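Usage

Read records sequentially. Each one opens with the input sequence:
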Amino acid sequence: MSSAPQLLLAWADEAALAHALAQELGCPLALVEVHRFPDGESRLRLPPRLPAHTVLLRGLQQANERLAELLLVAGGARELGAQRLSLVTPYLGYMRQDIEFTPGEVVSQRHMGALLARAFDAVLTVDPHLHRVATLDAVMPGCEGVALSAAPLLGRFVAAQRPGALLLAPDGEAEQWVAAAGAASGLAHAVCHKERHGDLQVQIALPDFEFKGRAVVLLDDVASTGGTLALAARLALAAGAAALDVAVTPARFVGDAEARVRAAGVDQIWSSDCVPHPSNAVAVAPLLAQALLN
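and closes with the structure output:
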């Protein structure tokens, strides 16, 4: 980043991460005042004057609900004095669809990236879904895109909790995260093979590895429906794994997903605090601050 942040702006529902990040940055924190009208629209209030480099913190899980307020605040921040406006979005939604799978589908990654690039000078996120795109800069032309990873943090945490555990990616898409976690922790890692037949229908094959008597930790970049994690957990336990835990960044767990994962025999669930969840075990504020201050 070209200059040290002078103010962090955040929403009250992310106050815990906001306070931790402001402390790491050594800058003041202000919360966006939000009044929601009966029709669902919002009145937003910021400090009456903003410094030249202002940082907004807003996770874009539930992006359909949060994006309008974020863009309104970005526009207001410019009017109130922010010359360089950086967005820290620990979870960046709408990154999954990066190509047109069937005719007429909207490539959400491309358009979300363009929208944010027009509103911000820099966008910083953690573990975005960039499977066929090499960098976040490519998604956000004309904007400084920074993609960090919490996988090394999770790897070191797992090594402290389960010395000698096997890190297991539930599919090939998670290979980059399990490899990074393994490199940071010194733990062995392996990758399952997955075939998806719909949003909730998947088939998984375990890698050629000795699971009997081994502590196994499934590590993935996100947990949403929990179906893939639950299936991989059952297979690993059936193959003789002595214990089975899950580490994710972040934990979304929509509906009964967490219950489904635990019912598969999973003991502990650990996640980064990119998205607030009772499983949060790894703090990303130091990682975010380091990137903002460099």
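Summary fields computed downstream for this record:
- Residues 11 and 244 are 36 Å apart (CA to CA).
- The longest strand covers residues 84-89.
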